[in-house]
Specification:
By secondary structure, the protein is an alpha+beta fold. The chain folds into 2 domains: 3-80, no CATH class; 97-166, no CATH class. The chain is 50% helix and 16% strand. A 3-stranded antiparallel β-sheet has the order 1-2-3, with no helix packed on it. A hairpin with a 2-residue loop joins strand 2 (40-51) and strand 3 (54-59). It starts with a helix and ends in an 11-residue tail after the last helix. InterPro entries: P-loop_NTPase (IPR027417). It comes from Hamiltonella defensa subsp. Acyrthosiphon pisum (strain 5AT).
Length: 177
């Protein structure tokens, strides 16, 4: 459902109720008390116009009902966005095809065993945290080192962070000389 269009319509109806009524040619305007089943009596604006021998009347809705409807639409839109984001994150994570041994890796559970490894972790944390700015500027991050030093752990942790926080795919490649 397009919640944006529905919210715009409801907002416009509320704005119209808060503004003086627009006077239209050949239209009779009146304001009268009306009864809302949920909110009781409210001031209802009615317009009548005669077109081709038929009288057409329009009536405004209860302002409290409109306010509730707007709130429900906003909540539904937020829930829809959350579901879409969750689905997109799941798809991107599935596309990583993580080997089982890397399924639980994060930047938080990386254990640096040397000062260089701690420096690399700090650099990777900064890279992941500031990823949107890095993307705009271009460039990447190259990790090199001996086997077993945690390059894959850090690279996949960055990818997972970027997917979860920014709902974007990080490109990781491995090359062995």
């Amino acid at each position: 459902m397009n919640y944006s269009a529905a919210m715009t319509t409801v907002r416009q109806k509320l704005a119209d109720l808060n503004a003086p009524p627009k006077r239209l040619k050949n239209t009779v305007y009146e304001e009268r008390d009306a009864l809302c089943d949920r909110h009781g009596i409210f001031k209802q604006r009615c317009r009548r116009i005669a077109l081709y021998g038929k009288e057409i009347e329009t009536k405004t809705e209860c302002p409290s009902c409109l306010t509730e409807k707007l709130s429900q639409l906003q909540q539904s839109e937020a829930e829809q966005k959350k579901r879409r984001k969750h689905h997109k994150i799941k798809m991107l994570m599935d596309d990583l095809h993580l080997p089982e041994r890397f399924a639980g890796v994060t930047l938080d559970n990386y254990e640096p065993v040397t000062l260089d490894a701690a420096r690399c972790l700090k650099l990777c944390n900064a890279y992941a945290t500031h990823w949107p700015e890095r993307l705009k500027r271009g460039g990447g991050l190259v990790m090199c080192g001996k086997p077993g030093t945690g390059k894959n752990h850090l690279a996949l942790s960055i990818a997972k962070h970027v997917i979860n926080e920014h709902v974007r795919r990080e490109s990781c490649t491995t090359e062995v000389p």
